[in-house]
Design goal:
This protein has 217 residues and is α/β, with parallel strands linked by helices. It is built from 8 helices and 11 strands. A hairpin with a 2-residue loop joins strand 6 and strand 7. The structure holds calcium ion. The site of calcium ion has 5 residues, from loops.
Length: 217
């Protein structure tokens, strides 16, 4: 899953980006409201972490414009300490959750996972499709109860397919959601990863829908 991180405090952003990366997310970063607005409107993100106090354009204004434009990506807003009015304004502007500063990066990760689950229509922290289960918090994948060793990138691809289970996911969509902008992309890598996933999870775990993409479930 791919996250847009919007935070003008460089040190905080670095800390958050590293926690999100360790948690298996592809992370893109914007440090002001104008960049954030543009990136949110033009790139495919699964969730956004949005600071409200930003240069050029406030986080609140960015969020309002996204929602007005019909963008329904889950947004977690970061608010100043004890600023209850900011939290209310954020939620009213279309935020799905908030965190008051200071906070632990681990809690941001946990809340993001919960938002992603809800937007995929699930409540259980463990994703299950057919014989395959994925616990994103622990990074554990099992097939029929047997644990399977996957690389971070394989888990990222599997996680996206499982969050979209029952739906066809094209190669391009998969690329957009598992790579950050600066990541190296090669057109055949998705095929290679899917082939490796099938070898580890069983041939039937991921179906190819000819000419359209892949589907789990
Ligand atoms: Ca700020």
């Amino acid at each position: 899953m791919r996250i847009l991180l919007v935070e003008d405090d460089a040190e905080l952003a670095r800390r958050l980006a590293s926690a999100l990366g360790e948690a298996g997310f592809a992370v893109d970063y914007a440090s002001d409201g104008e960049d954030a607005l543009l990136m949110g409107e033009t790139q495919a993100f699964d969730a956004v972490v949005l600071d409200l106090g930003l240069p050029k354009l406030s986080g609140l204004e960015v969020l309002r414009r996204w929602r007005r434009a019909g963008l329904d990506t889950p947004v977690l807003v970061l608010t100043a300490r004890d600023a209850w009015t900011e939290r209310v304004e954020g939620l009213n502007a279309g935020a799905d959750d908030y965190m008051g500063k200071p906070f632990q990066a681990a809690e941001v990760v946990a809340r993001l996972r919960a938002l992603l689950r809800r937007s995929a229509g699930g409540a259980s922290p463990v994703l299950r499709v057919g014989d395959v289960t994925l616990d994103p918090g622990a990074g554990i994948v099992e097939v029929e109860g047997r644990s399977v060793d996957l690389t971070a990138r394989e888990i990222r691809i599997l996680s996206y397919l499982m969050h979209r289970s029952g739906r066809i996911v094209s190669q391009n969509e998969l690329m957009d959601h598992v790579y950050a902008m600066d990541d190296m992309r090669e057109s055949n890598t998705i095929e290679v990863y899917v082939a490796r996933l099938r070898k580890k999870l069983g041939r039937e775990a991921i179906r190819t829908i000819r000419g359209l993409g892949y589907r789990m479930g």
